[in-house]
Amino acid sequence: MSKDISYQGLARKYRPILFEDLVGQEQVSASLQKALKSKRVAHGHILAGPRGSGKTTSARILAMGLNCESGPTPSPCGHCSQCEAVINGSNMDVIEIDAASNTGVDNMRELLERVINVPFAARRKVYIIDEVHMLSIASFNALLKTLEEPPPNVVFILATTELEKVPETVRSRCVLHAFQRLGSDDIAGRLAQVVEKEGVSFDGDKAGEIYRLIGNSVDGGMRDALVILDQVIASVSYTHLRAHETEADLVCR
Question: pTM for this one?
Answer without folding.
Answer: 0.87
